Amino acid sequence: MNSITFGPISRFSLLVLVALLGAAGLVQADFKAPDPSAAAIGRSGGNLANVSDSSAVAINPARLTELTQNEGQFSAILVDAPTEIRPEVGFKTDSRKDLKPLGSFFVGGPIPDSDFAWGLGLYMPYGMSSIVSEFSHFRYTQAHSTKLTYVNLAPTIAVSLTDKFSVGGSLDFVYSEVEFEQAYPWALVTGFPGLPDGEATLEGDDWTLGGTLGANYDLSDRQRLAFKLRLPTDLDYSGSTELTDIPALLPNPTVTEFGAQIRYPMEIGLGYGIDVTDKLNVGIDIQWIQFSRLETMNINAGVNSPLLTTSVPFNLKDAWHAGIGVAYEFLDGWTLRGGYRFEESPIEDRFLTVSLPGYDQHIVSAGLGYRCEAYFVDLAYSHSFYPTREVSNNVVPSVNGEYDYHFNTFAMTVGFSF
To answer: pTM for the full model?
Structure first.
């Protein structure tokens, strides 16, 4: 078997790439943010054919045709994602600042005297924030801070082509920022012991266009099929690279350019929904996510590239997600929701990083909602169950060890009709 070894500069270069991919969301065992509303989180696993509010902009645009009046909604989502790492060599490390706030806004409704519906959404389908101690065992081989923001503004249109078949689509205006911070071992790089560590900060942003398509077909008055396609996007981040405490013997500038590309996946989803009774509906979703687009990544740091840059394969694999969700109106206007979803991780042990929670997970969720003619309020909670992950063959040996992940999501949505 061929072996791979890394010197200090190569290990740092690998770390930079790993950190950026971790930031890219490879949040929830892959690289997707939680569902964009409390109702969707509470019924996680069964939304594609059952969503019936303005969050359909993100979940399945075709379902906007189910709206009978204009509505808007704001969602506040809080993710608690602590991680405990027990490396084979070194001391235990816990993540820091584990509470991650997210949010979304959706508005939409029918277009009078037509078969069309409209919508607009502002939400975050991907994202990551991971922070560990800057003095941890991983300080030279893993990031102590990685952050990525991916915001999607999505004007949307949907139309009922027949009484049974509707389609919809959004033009997605995407803006994204990435930031990475890492201790830099000048003593190891130069061979001069006693030199103080520096820090490398790489940050950049970019914007692009994407799209989300959806379809809904009513099999009967109580049954329906749904389809969703999120188109892939490529973001070419540009910004600055800053190296601190550069030794006097090196002529390198403190600040240089930064460039990197992250290739976000295509997503395809199929959903089935059934109204078991007038008050109980059930949905089943299956999704395929093309994470294999993230194969290799390059970093450009200008004249400092010889210190930082290399090309590293990540070899992510495509992943399947599947689940079931239920909603039951137990009193007039009051709805209980529940769901289960399995998410396969695209990250193999050899390419696992400290920055991202990469393992198969089982997600259980529950929610409660109240709706009247003028407004609605939804609450939800979900918990992800991860078995302990044991890694022994990582390309960065210091990453080998045991990983315990915890992922809790709390959400509240407030909506109104107009």
So the answer is: 0.88
